[in-house]
């Protein structure tokens, strides 16, 4: 016989990722009784944010100013809207969310986090550099601020606040509760119902069973859907894959745990919510297979500096400005036209030591553990960092050889490597090396390398001194086979500026709110077609705060 458990609250929050933690914490701080549910065991509190590198987008921050970076709200708006490319009727709320988020990133976002004890690495990163014209996509200046403590450092203060409220009886946290329906009375959402799943002792990120042992109901005056996106569900990713990006890859790896499955979208739609911009998504092309996986098909993204030579599966160099770190979506679209699911980096030991960082809290023990000695050793010392070296030693996508002939042979020996034209690889690498010896180069990537090193942060820890890759003094040669790694949904549930779910962009559904990736980080797609990086965690913070405060005020 199935056992039904019942709960009541002022606010129900579905999903305990960063947006959910923030929404629940804001409502609890305003004196509301909160229930927060999630289908995973409690070890996963914090969701995907815990696994992140902790990058945050700020505008005209003290860290930027100390490095001589001249940023402004106007410049950031130019970059955001040039990247977003809003062009649909459904972009009405996303446009307004973008304006509101830019104000937040320019004003109180940093101080609000600092008040909660969140600190930042002093060197600002330059992600999504663009390489087009001034009004095209990309960041005109470095804006990627890494949290001291990475993703866990962002999650920690909000988790701690929630657990304090739990101990005081103001918050109830219910793991292994999977919502299957939003309950409604006379058009108003009054809570949710669903399955209680079998208890699990699985560690964070490991896929868990969906065995049902009971059911539950939660009655609440307001409900926030903050259940994340679809990156762990390849079926949904392929279903929503846009024609403008070519055919979806036959083979992809996964940058998020399996629970990022999009299962709440049809549940919300059944209650009248509208899912918009589902064809806008953010997947990376610098993915490598994790040699020590946590979840199924676990992929890690390389956060590359700008020096590696990027070749398609046949060995042809990618066109301007599709260099490492310049235009994620443009590179994805180009590579999908090649007919292959993989591409290659070719580089030197000197480049990998200076430029390779792996995305994720677990791949950056120095920053995650706030270990200054390890940080100095790994970022400024001789040799690749420990996690990068582990991939060089154990990763199936890495080829390390002493000469170009052997490197090409090693590349061709990997699955799919038979597509590689060895003579074309040689032509591209040798031609590039001739240009690096020339002070008056026509090679745009080399010119951009020299420009990048004018920024102190890049020169210190992010961009290697331009050199010939084939110079024996630069160390062994390295090739890395790159895969498409799924990550973020840029579309989501349409909401107004209070986080209320709206019907056809106009009428709110009483009692229903959405936040985080489930809402396209606000409005149903605050990023438009392209994101500027460091904006995903920030979108969770801003939309979660907005929804939590708005719902609490309305109760």
UniProtKB/TrEMBL annotation:
Provide the alphabetized UniProt keywords.
Flavoprotein, Oxidoreductase
Q: Name one Pfam family in it.
A: FAD_binding_2
InterPro entries named in the record:
FAD-dep_OxRdtase_2_FAD-bd, FAD/NAD-bd_sf, KsdD_DH, Succ_DH/fumarate_Rdtase_cat_sf
Annotated ranges, domain FAD-dependent oxidoreductase 2 FAD-binding: 10-537
NCBIfam families noted in UniProt? PRK12834.1
This chain belongs to the protein called FAD-binding dehydrogenase
């Amino acid at each position: 016989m199935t056992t039904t458990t019942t709960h009541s609250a002022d606010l129900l929050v579905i999903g305990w990722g960063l947006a959910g933690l923030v929404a629940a914490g804001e409502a609890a701080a305003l004196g509301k009784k909160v229930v927060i549910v999630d289908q995973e065991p409690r070890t996963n509190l914090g969701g995907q944010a815990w696994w992140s590198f902790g990058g945050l987008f700020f505008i005209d921050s003290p860290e930027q100013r100390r490095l001589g970076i001249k940023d402004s709200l106007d410049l950031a708006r130019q970059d955001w809207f040039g990247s977003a490319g809003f062009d649909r009727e459904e972009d009405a709320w996303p446009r307004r969310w973008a304006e509101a988020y830019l104000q937040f990133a320019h004003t109180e976002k940093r101080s609000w986090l600092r008040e909660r004890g969140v600190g930042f690495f002093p060197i600002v990163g330059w992600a999504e550099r663009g390489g087009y014209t001034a009004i095209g996509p990309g960041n005109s200046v470095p804006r990627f601020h890494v949290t001291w403590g990475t993703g866990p450092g962002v999650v920690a203060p909000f988790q701690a606040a929630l657990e304090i409220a739990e101990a005081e009886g103001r918050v109830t946290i219910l793991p292994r509760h999977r919502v299957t329906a939003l309950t409604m009375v006379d058009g108003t959402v009054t809570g949710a119902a669903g399955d209680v799943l079998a208890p699990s002792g699985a560690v964070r990120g490991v896929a868990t069973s969906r065995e049902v042992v009971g059911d539950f109901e939660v009655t609440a005056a307001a409900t926030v859907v903050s259940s994340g996106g679809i990156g762990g569900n390849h079926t949904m990713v392929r279903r929503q894959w846009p024609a403008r990006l070519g055919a979806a890859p036959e083979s992809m790896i996964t940058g998020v745990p399996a629970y990022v499955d999009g299962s709440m979208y049809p549940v919300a739609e059944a209650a009248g919510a509208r899912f918009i911009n589902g064809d806008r998504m953010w997947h990376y092309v610098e993915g490598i297979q994790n040699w020590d996986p946590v979840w199924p098909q676990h992929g890690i993204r390389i956060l590359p500096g700008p020096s590696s030579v990027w070749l398609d599966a046949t060995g042809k160099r990618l066109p301007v400005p599709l260099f490492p770190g310049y235009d994620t979506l443009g590179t994805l679209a180009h590579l999908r036209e090649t007919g292959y699911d993989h591409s290659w980096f070719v580089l030197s030991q000197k480049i990998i030591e200076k430029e390779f960082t792996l995305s994720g809290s677990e791949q950056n023990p120095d920053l995650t553990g706030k270990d200054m000695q390890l940080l100095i050793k790994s970022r400024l010392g001789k040799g690749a960092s420990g996690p990068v070296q582990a991939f060089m030693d154990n990763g199936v996508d890495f080829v390390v050889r002493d000469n170009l002939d052997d490197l090409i042979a090693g590349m061709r020996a990997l699955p799919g490597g038979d597509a590689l034209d060895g003579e074309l690889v040689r032509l591209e690498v040798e031609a590039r090396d001739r240009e690096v010896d020339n002070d008056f180069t026509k090679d745009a990537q080399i010119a951009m390398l020299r420009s990048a090193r004018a920024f102190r942060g890049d020169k210190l820890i992010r961009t290697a001194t331009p050199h010939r890759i084939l110079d024996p003094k630069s160390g062994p040669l390295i090739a890395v086979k790159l895969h498409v790694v799924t990550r973020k949904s840029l579309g989501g549930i349409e909401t107004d500026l209070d986080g209320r779910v709206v019907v056809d962009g106009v009428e709110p559904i009483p009692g229903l709110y959405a936040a985080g990736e489930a809402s396209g980080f606000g409005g149903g797609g605050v990023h438009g077609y392209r994101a500027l990086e460091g904006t995903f965690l920030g979108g969770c913070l801003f939309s979660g705060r907005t929804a939590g405060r708005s719902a609490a005020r309305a109760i």
